[in-house]
Amino acid sequence: MFDWRRQFGPALDQTIFGLERHDPLVMSGAAAILALVAIVAALVPARAAALVDPLLVLRHE
């Protein structure tokens, strides 16, 4: 399998000045942003589904 980190890692290290490849602050910030986006993306359809009357949905089946 192709290892993207080994192939493009040195090029990416040169484009982001002042950051190491495994900086804990950057990794935790990226994980927090990813979690926030996932929660918001899940809440929108969940709220829409919660507002629908179950009897109306079951009647159409």
Structure description:
It is a single chain. 74% of the residues lie in helices and 0% in strands. It is an all-alpha fold and 61 residues long. The chain has a domain of 42 residues. The longest helix has 27 residues. It is elongated. The N and C termini lie far apart (46 Å). The mean pLDDT is 81.
Give a topology summary:
Elements: H1 4-15, H2 24-50, H3 54-59
Question: What descriptive keywords fit this protein?
Answer:
mainly alpha; 0% strand; 61 residues; elongated
Describe this structure in a few short sentences:
The chain has 61 residues and is mainly α. It is built from three helices and no strands.
Task: List the secondary-structure elements in sequence, H or E.
Answer: HHH
**Principal-axis shape:** elongated
Uncertain ranges:
none
Major sheet summary line: none
Radius of gyration, rounded? 21 Å
Q: How large a portion of the residues is in β-strands, by DSSP E? A: under 5%
Query: Could you state the oligomeric state of the chains shown?
Result: single chain
Mean pLDDT: 81
- Let me know the number of strands: 0
Percent in helix: over 70%
Q: What's the number of helices?
A: 3
* Alpha carbon gap, first and last residue: 46 Å
Query: Which secondary-structure class do the elements indicate?
Result: mainly alpha
